[in-house]
Amino acid sequence: MLGCDLGTMFKVAVAGGSYQDGLTVHLQGVPPGLLITEEQIYEDLLLRKPGQGELTSPRREPDIPIIYNGINAADTMPGFKNAGHTNGTPFVILIPNLDRHFEHIEQYQVTNRTPRPGHASYASYQKYDHWDDAIGAGIFSGRYTSTIVAAGAVAKKILAGKGIEVSAYVREAAGVSMPDMPIEQIRTKAAAYRKIRREHDPIWQFVYQSGRIKPGMRFLEKMPVLSEVEKMIGSFPKVEMDEKKVRSEYGVHPSLFCPDLPTADEMYRKIIEIKDAGDSSGGVVEVVATGVPAGMGEPVFRKLDGELGRMLSIGAVKAVEIGAGVKVKDMTGSQCNDQLFAEGGNVRFGSNNAGGITGGLTTGQPIVIRLTVKPTPTISKDQHTVDKVTREGAVLKAVTRRDPTLVARIWPVAEAFIAVILLDHLMMHVGYQGMWRQ
Q1: Distance between CA 292 and CA 366 in Å, rounded?
Q2: N or C end of the chain: smaller count of CB under 10 Å?
Q3: Cα separation of 167 and 157, whole Å?
Q4: Does domain 5-436 have CATH number 3.40.50.10860?
Q5: Whole-structure pTM over 0.90, yes or no?
Q6: Distance of CA 262 to the CA centre of its chain
Q7: Is beta strand 5-6 parallel, antiparallel or unpaired with respect to 11-16?
Q8: Cα(343)–Cα(354) distance, integer angstroms
Q9: Which residues neighbour 143 within 8 Å (Cβ) at sequence distance 6 or greater?
Q10: Tens digit of pLDDT for each residue in 346-403?
């Protein structure tokens, strides 16, 4: 299988499928000396994992990452304190699949001849024939996005050291849109949302807060913990959440990250209304990156906005907009152009319709991107389809686990994907500048 890798200097390759033993993230270009823990990676993964309420699939994957390669097993010499730090070799993360019980596999087996409309199951059968990994949609499942989030957790850690911060959130869901909000306020809400999701997550408490998995443990010491988690899936005690306190103290919705609470409430109400009618809904994810230096990117075929368009690789994303996006069609040149001004020896812009990128290069302004997410293909209504083997007409009755909307889980994927692309281009930019600006 081709097409499972990305990047030039920060290279990401992923493998695995929804019901295979797990997923793998292979990173090249991670600099030496970085300290990142499995718990830090998990804190991003828990934002997209399923089984966390009415807005997600009931599949209960714990998404516990295992750092397998790329860090020092111990201090390398007396007087050195480099145990657990990256050493410049390929950095490998494993994400085992633990909630893949036979009754769920059987549900896919009995329906796999009749592909889900809107899903990849018909096209993938045409490509791979009966060898296609169709249990849970294989690598075409949203399950694979956990690999992007894991890679992005590493990329964001590196970018933060260079003053670059990437933030994503749900801008629109089920036709409900949030008002504009300063990015600083959004980031305060994001930090609060991450905190309440972590503190009310039973896996985080069982695995990390208890110290069952901690830095310095060997791979074989971690495996019994995963086996223990697998046996307990479905029986972890729920961590009760005081939703009234969450709303009053943090000002966030307990299960949907739209930073404007009244809007989040209305989004949630509308999503559930559509779900109860047996259908699904879509939305828009917005991402803002700040601290990106001017002049980063490449011309012609590697323009940065073109590279960010690769986020169409995220399942269910059907459009990517930069800056004003499709609204530019209704503007005049004088309205669309971001005019430049001199202020105290610095360059300022009167607007940011370009989304921080012109000519494929960054301007130093915030990069602003929006992703349009389609409704979940799997719904509770009968749909016309075919038997993909006999090519006869059929009716599909949905029986598999599913999300009522995907936008609530795609925002951390978008945040991670952009971080990976920005880090790759930052490494190229710094290397290129260093060749002639010394």
Answers
A1: 7
A2: C
A3: 13
A4: no
A5: yes
A6: 24
A7: antiparallel
A8: 20
A9: 17, 18, 23, 61, 97, 136, 137
A10: 999 999 999 999 999 999 999 999 999 999 888 888 889 998 888 899 988 766 556 8
